[in-house]
Design brief:
Layout (H helix, E strand, L loop, with lengths): L2 H12 L20 E5 L3 H12 L3 E5 L11 E5 L2 E4 L10 H9 L4 E3 L3 E6 L2 E3 L8 H8 L1 H6 L3 H7 L4 H7 L4 H15 L8 H10 L8 E3 L5 H10 L4 E2 L4 E7 L2 E6 L4 E4 L1 E4 L3 H6 L1 E3 L4 H9 L1 E2 L2 E8 L9 E5 L5 E4 L9 E8 H9 L2 H16 L6 E4 L2 E2 L11 E2 L5 H8 L6 E3 L11 H16 L1
Parallel strand pairs: 1-2, 1-13, 2-9, 6-17, 10-14, 13-23
Antiparallel strand pairs: 3-4, 5-8, 6-7, 10-11, 11-12, 15-22, 16-19, 16-20, 16-21, 17-18, 18-19
Helix pairs in contact: 2-10, 2-16, 12-15, 13-14
This protein binds flavin-adenine dinucleotide.
Flavin-adenine dinucleotide (FAD) binds next to helix 2, strand 16 and helix 16.
Length: 452
């Protein structure tokens, strides 16, 4: 059973998706809408708007930023080179992203890497390091292990953190340290904060490279841009920060911080949870929902690209896991022509916070020091640097949702409930949570729900 099926089954048993809960005074609106407003022009909002447009429903997106794409954010540190400050990889299991790329004529290229390790001051190239035979065996059998568990056993795993699960299996400290470094890049925080259910479900259901497979040629932001084009620029209003949502029998009334007012029959809100809580809701959101919104944390990820005058790492598919503050490095300009190249330091949790807080020179030194055991002093090769820390992004305050211990089954069904004429969508509400695929799935699913 996949996570989505599992979630739907448990939600239906508990009535979470279809029945009112305490504090939810009324159900979904009876009529199909003629006009819909969408908060957010990230992939979720764009996917919802594309589907509504196809269904012939007048739709307007209100987006606080001055660009579309939200957490898909491509950046040119040099005119000739593009790196991703937000979403990086498209997985081979991410069917909707792949289909949409085909529909819009976007090319996906191989963005898989082979990983070096710098651990306890020692550099080992790919092929020269491994985990213990016990861990390697467990890892290659994880799908079978997952599939033989009962639904009850799986659900129970949501109550234990991933670090503890691995420790209790008796793996060595080195194995667990390295899994911490590897897996915390996926969840954006230490695996001591990640539920075993979330970790195992994701790893058991993912591609061999854990969905770190492909990338859009020319920049991942080409996808939201193409989706926006197909919706039409007059239906996407940028720089509109929704600050007040009022609901009445007639529908929804949205007020933006610039004073503009918009009316519609129904609303789809794709804002991350922190932003949902910043909106003034009239009437107020039910307590169960505000509790869930307050309970869900977001991963703190920072991307710190460094431009080097030459690609000293020697192969296009280079990445390197380190136990330094720079954490995980990958070649952000893989297969882009030119002598110069960019290594992106991808740091999570407190490491990201620390790097973000430092003056530029100190940050660069900390990043280069993480690579020093393998490559010596790299300072003379540096040709530029930039940084983006999602923990302080004004419209998300985090990279993506990080479901903690016991939260997957408790919070997600509550967060997915519509509230009168308002539906909620976004990566945080999807089976492929934390991915572009999840954002698109969630936006499309909510439209199906609205129109069913
Ligand atoms: C560092 C990082 C790495 C990632 N890596 C990957 C990866 O490798 N592969 C992958 O598939 N995914 C990855 N992701 C996740 C992916 O980017 C997200 O899952 C997806 O883009 C989220 O889309 P969304 O539409 O749900 O939310 P968003 O993109 O956040 O869109 C929501 C929009 O709502 C707007 N908004 C918020 N509040 C308001 C308001 N009050 N009024 C108006 N507008 C508002 C925001 O500005 C935003 O544009 C990564 C994300 C980050 C940050």
């Amino acid at each position: 059973m996949k996570r989505r099926d599992f979630l739907q089954a448990t939600a239906l048993l508990g009535g979470a998706l279809t029945l009112p809960a305490k504090g939810y005074p009324n159900l979904l609106p009876a009529k199909k809408p003629k006009q819909v407003l969408v908060i957010g022009a990230g992939l979720s909002g764009l996917a919802a708007a594309c589907k509504l447009k196809k269904a012939g429903i007048k739709t307007t997106i209100l987006e606080a930023r001055n660009r579309v794409g939200g957490r898909v954010f491509s950046h040119q540190p040099l005119d000739s080179l593009t790196v991703e400050m937000g979403a990086e990889w498209v997985g081979t299991s991410h069917n909707r992203v792949i289909e949409l790329c085909e529909e819009f004529g976007l090319e996906l290229f191989d963005n898989r890497f082979e990983t070096d390790l710098i651990y306890h001051g020692k550099h080992e190239s790919v092929g020269n390091w491994s985990l213990s035979p016990e861990m390697e065996t467990f890892w290659s059998n994880k799908k079978a292990y997952w599939e033989q568990l009962s639904s009850k056993e799986k659900e129970k795993m949501d109550r234990m953190d991933w670090w503890r699960f691995l420790s209790r299996k008796g793996f060595s400290d080195r194995d667990i340290d390295i899994r911490e470094l590897l897996d915390s890049t996926d969840f954006g925080e230490s695996i001591r904060k990640v539920s075993t259910y979330c970790a195992l479900a994701e790893y058991a259901e993912s591609s061999e490279k854990n969905e770190m497979d492909l990338k859009i040629k020319g920049g991942n932001d080409l996808l939201p841009k193409k989706m926006a084009e197909s919706i039409g620029s007059d239906s996407i209003l940028l720089g509109r920060n929704v600050s007040l949502v009022e609901q009445s029998r007639d529908g929804v009334k949205l007020t933006c911080s610039n004073g503009e007012v918009y009316l519609a029959d129904q609303l789809i809100c794709t804002a991350p949870t922190y932003m949902v809580m910043k909106i003034n809701w009239q009437p107020g959101l039910p307590t169960a929902m505000t509790d869930a919104l307050n309970g869900l944390q977001y991963a703190r990820i920072g991307k710190f690209p460094v431009v080097f005058s030459e690609r000293f790492w020697g192969r296009e598919n280079f990445d390197c896991l380190t136990d330094g503050v720079g954490h995980y490095f990958y070649h952000g300009t893989k297969d882009q022509p030119g002598q110069k190249g960019v290594l992106v330091a991808y740091a999570i949790g407190d490491k990201a916070e620390v790097l973000h807080a430092q003056p530029k020179e100190v940050r660069l030194k900390l990043i280069l020091d993480s690579l020093r055991p393998g490559f010596g002093d790299l300072s003379k090769l540096v040709a530029g640097e930039s940084s983006y820390y999602w923990g302080k992004d004004q419209y998300s305050y985090g990279a993506y949702a990080q479901y903690g211990i016991g939260q997957w089954f408790d919070l997600m069904p509550v967060l997915k409930r519509p509230f009168k004429s308002v539906y909620f969508a976004g990566e945080h509400l999807a089976e492929w949570q934390g991915f572009m695929e999840g954002a698109i799935n969630s936006g499309e699913e909510v439209v199906e729900q609205m129109l069913s």
